[in-house]
Amino acid sequence: MKNLSKLQQILDNGQFAVTAEIGPPKHSSAEGIRHHAEMMRDYVDATNITDNQTAIVRLSSIAAGVHVLANGIEPIVQMTCRDRNRIAMQSDLMGAYSLGMRNVLCLSGDHQKFGNHPTAKNVYDIDSMQLIYYLRRMRDEKLFFSGEEIKEHEPQFFIGAVANPFADPFEFRVDRLEKKVEAGAQFIQTQCIFDMERFERFMEMVRERGIDERVHILAGVTPMKSWRAAKYIQNNVSGMIVPDELVERLKNAEDPKREGVDICIEQIKYIKEKVKGVHGVHVMAIAWEEVVPEIVEKSGLYPRPKVG
Amino acid sequence: MIVAQQKPIEDIAQMINDCKKVLFVGCAGCVTVCLAGGDKETQVLASAMRIKRNLENNPLEAITFTCTRQCDPEYIEPLDNLVKDVDAIVSLACGVGVQYLAERFKDKWVVPALDTKFIGGSTVHGSWEEKCGLCGDCILHRTGGICPIIRCSKSILNGPCGGSQYGKCEVSKDVDCAWQLIYDRMKALGKLDKLMEFQPPKDWSKSRDGGPRKAIREDVMID
Ligand code: SF4
Ligand code: SF4
């Protein structure tokens, strides 16, 4: 195999991986992205570059990936099914590969109703499962999605997907994960975990079916700044479960931000030590990128392994 | 059936503001069933327009006619005599009816009084729901008789997405998650294993993306 991404090498070596997230800005300057990349450089193995997250127009995931790469971090480009048809997806992903991107995360994407262009026409030409399947085929069988041959230089992506253990129907969540793995997903990032019990039940089912041996699962964690933020997610973000105890703990804290970081560190330690089958963590410090190095360090995940 | 809804009266009035005599044409098909453009609605709209225009000191002569079906040449023929001296025709049919009138009466200003919304059916009196997206290649046998193309907000064929919770879709607490419905039904039928099969992408060329579609039955064609 050639062109292995750093993230893939770390995961394949059996080392506990750390990824984070950089949200591109709502303007066309890369200054902030570069700053965040620089700050995180030594603390994470790769960073997700969100693709118009929550359907809000932002600097492109691929373009931001170029800036991140230039600052020494491996990007994980995101591709949502909401905004592009299969022609645009292939074109953009080949372009991304030519720019040095090696990891891609396939998502259906939040519905445009929630973003800043609710009157837009969505695409949803193919779904995330199909995107995973055809990207794998593109790499392994040198075929365009249509089945036409790619004569040379097929993109060789490390293919990722997401799983949400907190959405419904719960029993189908593991089925769908397995289906994504069958389709070709090599790594999985989960939705932010607040309800540890439910996550553990999910992982139990995953292990029962041996899925953790066929795919690298990275557990999603998010430090919360305040009890209001927690309450907001609890009430307004579909597919998320935030236990009341967590809200209470933040509410009673003297320094809620500190508490949020502490909770996140506890979660990472717990997941790493107690939850079998998890191969890494994905820290989603949404609009709070600054806190990532501290979390990584205090969770005992620093320094990061060197590869290649 | 096709479900349509009347446009706001102001909008319709605007379209014919400068006309003196207007023909309002209803349809006795789908739009009658969904209470949007039948004979009754046509009469009501015509008289509302007359009153409005009277109040504005800009009287309107409004005549009416309701076709058996506006999407059939045979049934719009009788309009030939009625349209002669009108300045505009307001169609209370679906978009097909409007286009049939515009095609036949080439020198007339033909405008829509309805918004054609979707194909679906009634749930309770006064409420209709979309059920089919006219994709041209039905897959209901693979999804327990529930259409993911139109009833899933993201048209996912290998769902459910991560936004599904408590049986509802992420777009609204009032929208059932189609994939929860599919899952429940397949489970009840003992066919959950079917949902593990990879569903390939849709061939949208059979949908509207192949250009306007035609359906031909040579066996029943006359010439
Ligand atoms: S699968 Fe296609 S034809 Fe069948 S109900 Fe759905 S949109 Fe209509
Ligand atoms: S929540 Fe259900 S219906 Fe809504 S987009 Fe996701 S899978 Fe489709």
From TrEMBL, chain A:
**Biological process annotations from GO:** methionine biosynthetic process; tetrahydrofolate interconversion
Would you say which domain of life the source belongs to? Answer: Bacteria
Cross-referenced InterPro entries: FAD-linked_oxidoreductase-like, Mehydrof_redctse-like
Name the GO cellular-component terms: cytosol
Q: Which cofactor does it need?
A: FAD
Q: Which SUPFAM superfamilies match?
A: FAD-linked oxidoreductase (SSF51730)
Any one Pfam family match given in the protein's UniProt record, by short name: MTHFR
Pathway recorded for this protein: One-carbon metabolism; tetrahydrofolate interconversion
Q: Which reaction does it catalyse?
A: (6S)-5-methyl-5,6,7,8-tetrahydrofolate + NAD(+) = (6R)-5,10-methylene-5,6,7,8-tetrahydrofolate + NADH + H(+)
Q: Which UniProt keywords apply?
A: FAD, Flavoprotein, Oxidoreductase
* Single annotated GO MF: methylenetetrahydrofolate reductase (NADH) activity
Family of the protein in this entry:
Belongs to the methylenetetrahydrofolate reductase family.
Query: Which protein, by its recorded name, is this?
Result: Methylenetetrahydrofolate reductase
The taxonomic lineage of its organism, from the top, reads: Bacteria, Bacillati, Bacillota, Clostridia, Eubacteriales
UniProtKB/TrEMBL annotation, chain B:
Show the InterPro entries listed in the entry. DUF5981
Q: How is this protein named in the record? A: Methylene-tetrahydrofolate reductase C terminal
Region of interest (Disordered), ranges: 202-223
Top-rank taxon: Bacteria
What organism is recorded for this protein? Desulfoscipio gibsoniae DSM 7213
Q: Per the database record, which ranges form the Methylene-tetrahydrofolate reductase C-terminal-like domain? A: 112-205
Compositionally biased, Basic and acidic residues: which spans? 203-223
Q: What is the lineage of its organism?
A: Bacteria, Bacillati, Bacillota, Clostridia, Eubacteriales
